[in-house]
Amino acid sequence: MGAKLNKAAAGTANYVDERTGIGALVKFFSRKLFPDHWSFMLGEIALYSFIVLLISGVFITAYFEPSMTPVIYNGPLETMQGVEMSKAFQSTLHMSFEVPGGLLMRQIHHWAALMFTAAILIHMARVFFTGAFRKPREINWLVGFTLMILSLAAGFTGYSLPDDVLSGNGLRIIDGVVKSIPILGSYISFWLFGGEFPGEVLIPRLFTAHILLVPGLILAMVALHLFLVFLHKHTQYPGGGRTHKNVVGLPLFPVYTAKAGGFFFVVFGIIAILGAFFTINPVWNYGPYDPSPVSAGTQPDWYILFVDGALRLMPGWLGGFPFEWTIFGYTLTMNILTPAVIIPGLFFGFLALYPWIEAWATGDRGEKHVLDRPRNAPTRTGIGVALISFYMILAMEGSNDIIANLFHLSLNDLTWTFRVAIFVVPPTAFWITKRIALGLQRKDRELVLHGHETGRIVRHEHGEYIEVHEPLDEQERWLRVNFDNLTPFEADPEYNERGVRRPGARWQRFKARLSRFYFEDRIEPVTPAEYAAAQHHGHGDQAHEGEQELAEVAKD
């Protein structure tokens, strides 16, 4: 029986290959090498979470009714008996309490959405801190950034579909944000809601976007992302023998394929456990949307929480100066426009363009396939930590009422504390992080030059006591010296020898200042000459070998 199955499978594969030539493609991909490191699984978690989203979403779509038509509930949930609600909310309750497995699938879908967004954000943080966005992967960074924005769009559109009080109040905030846009805001709001908020068409439109438009774009971006990964080859962490011209790793088939397949079921199982044992978004506790109740202690999901925090943080007045004006009959509400449109726009715009900003400031245009250790890029690492601290302050301000109640603090004092912290904490976090990174680089130099401390003390004939150090092995030495020694850019003189101003002189001065910001404080890697001089006493042969290795690293 087994022989017949093998023969049938081989015949089918041969038939397909003769007509499509797919065998050569499979052979090419199966020989593709992938580096092995735990952090690479973050992108896989995002991909597998999205697959779970698609599977659970098909189930939910079969029972959800995207309609804002009002009905009277008469289902099994006693607390909702006789309550007027939309068909969207009624179908959500029907799915949760009357469809076998309906509540489990809803919760799996919600937890998968949170894990999808979290995995993308952490994956992007890994890419940022290790410099994986550098040439030739700038476009792939934009693809990943677009996936992050699409994940936020997918989460928000899905979160709003049940038409409960919590999501309805969130939509009301979005309506206010849209209306704060000068001139166009009211027209956009009227088109989006099909009239005055809440209108009667928003839920069907969100449903179409949630199950068709956004997933289609995500699938396209995922396909493009994977194509670019295969095209450029995967980045790898620094280590012995790893350069920008090779890849050290495992073949896609069968090793990597087996590991990835098993990991999919691990992710699926964890999401299923979360959905089975941890309640999320219990809309029956909130009730159907009604504009009159606005409960304290309610926040949107964490990925949108920073916008809510920015709105809470922004004062309406500052020292008698208002942030809302009427100009030529139009109301300009800067206290909403600034925190909800301008600040997120600048924040996300900086993230999207960062690969080009850093490349322009550093002047480093070469291809990079070996990742940076975060300590070897102290300014970039400091910027990343500052951005994270900025986000965290806004997220905490979005929960200021919960924090104030939990710790018995004044809500007003807490808000003013965060208003000060938003200007103080990110620069402080940048400075501290950069100092720590530079300190770790100095420690690396010390280890390369003198080795690890052994705790053994030796006394020489002339009475001197010294501690014996153990030299680093080749792998560790390579790891601690294999990074680029970039220096600040020096601008040409503003005027040439004839006294004529050089074109672009101002931009050059600005670039020089930005370059100094990146590289003025730096620790240079150990050179072969420095290593030979440090190891000169007592390690003659080993020093010569290490010198040759350092020369090879510098050459690469």
UniProtKB/TrEMBL annotation:
UniProtKB keywords: Cell membrane, Electron transport, Heme, Iron, Membrane, Metal-binding, Respiratory chain, Translocase, Transmembrane, Transmembrane helix, Transport
Pfam families: Cytochrom_B_N_2
Compartmental location: Cell membrane
Keyword Calcium: no
Gene Ontology cellular-component annotations: plasma membrane
Occurrences of domain Cytochrome b/b6 C-terminal region profile (ranges): 239-439
Classification via Gene3D superfamilies: Cytochrome Bc1 Complex, Chain C
GO molecular function: metal ion binding; oxidoreductase activity; quinol-cytochrome-c reductase activity
Membrane topology, from the record: Multi-pass membrane protein
Residue ranges crossing the lipid bilayer per the database entry: 40-64, 108-129, 141-161, 206-231, 260-281, 327-356, 377-396, 416-433
Annotated segments matching region Disordered: 529-556
One Gene Ontology term from the biological process aspect of the record: respiratory electron transport chain
Primary location class: membrane
Enzyme Commission identifier(s): 7.1.1.8
Taxonomic superkingdom: Bacteria
InterPro entries (alphabetical): Cyt_b/b6_C, Cyt_b/b6_N, Cytb/b6-like_sf, Di-haem_cyt_TM
Segments of skewed composition (Basic and acidic residues): 538-556
Catalytic activity field: a quinol + 2 Fe(III)-[cytochrome c](out) = a quinone + 2 Fe(II)-[cytochrome c](out) + 2 H(+)(out)
PROSITE patterns referenced in this protein's UniProt entry, alphabetically: CYTB_CTER, CYTB_NTER
Ranges of residues in domain Cytochrome b/b6 N-terminal region profile: 12-238
Cofactors (names): heme
Protein name: Cytochrome bc1 complex cytochrome b subunit
